[in-house]
From TrEMBL:
Keywords: NADP, Oxidoreductase. Residues 15-314 form the NADP-dependent oxidoreductase domain. It comes from the Bacteria. InterPro entries: K_chnl_volt-dep_bsu_KCNAB-rel, NAD(P)_OxRdtase_dom_sf, NADP_OxRdtase_dom. This is Aldo/keto reductase family protein.
Amino acid sequence: MDYRHLGRSGLVISEIVYGNWLTHGSQVENDAATACVHAALDAGITTFDTADVYANTAAETVLGDALQGQRRESLEILTKVYWPTGPKGHNDTGLGRKHVMESIDGSLKRLRTDYVDLYQAHRFDVTTPLEETMVAFADIVHSGKAHYIGVSEWTADQIRQGAELAKELKIPFVSSQPQYSMLWRVIEEEVVPASDELGLGQIVWSPIAQGVLTGKYVPGQPLPEGSRATDSKGGADMISRFMNDDVLGRVQQLKPVAEQVGLSMAQLAVAWVLQNPNVSGAIIGASRPEQVTENVGAAGVELPAEVMTAIDEALGDVVVRDPAKTLEGMPKGRSVAS
């Protein structure tokens, strides 16, 4: 395993990050989830990413249980706040002070820790003044409940606004957690330059495009049983944007590229995102320990320039680059029951 500074902060994380979105507390039984976490630890992964919304708080509980017995100081535990949790009442969502302050306490209890290393705003809240949110984050940092703060799926302008307030409040705003893969490059034009300027590092999710970049989905062939594309609990919806013959056919052209450098297609995909110097870590998920072991094989890999070019040529115009896609996917507001 290789390790990188998170942006220009003093925090060092494993460049492969273990995440439990769509798995722990949902798709994967607890024993299997624990086995995956232990496989990650055995492979040198020290950084674990979760969120209160995953499986409506159950994922945090599973991760907290799985990490028991480990030296806390040797781990970096990351979680997030925004999306509805609990009974999903009118204050059970968003980045208002009430929800943020209550959410950190719930997360710490479920994770069985006194603090998280990084507390992240899971989305931008257009209904709450940003200053209110950032003051709440400052109070969390100053109380010792989180060491650093970050955001997920914010635009470059929103990141700049947050960074300005963080500087005034004297709290370390160090990271952005966006979707990023060979197929989804919407952060490259605006978010990455802004983050680089401000000293933020990217901790990217879905580097394998929810499994599409493994090559297991073949045009004209039945979907593999038990795959993300067959998951009715949310996985199929997330992967649907890539499930067309044009994209899947292009992905099949990556097989000889991966073979050329002695990598599996999954390893090639993870290694590709790690070539971006603004990326501090790539989040992988797993339902079986052997998936963790395979993906860790991307750590420390340097892809030659000709391989990066071959990837671009294989994928062609199916790559999504429009930075406006980040804004399009942002919640327009919080629904409040009457």
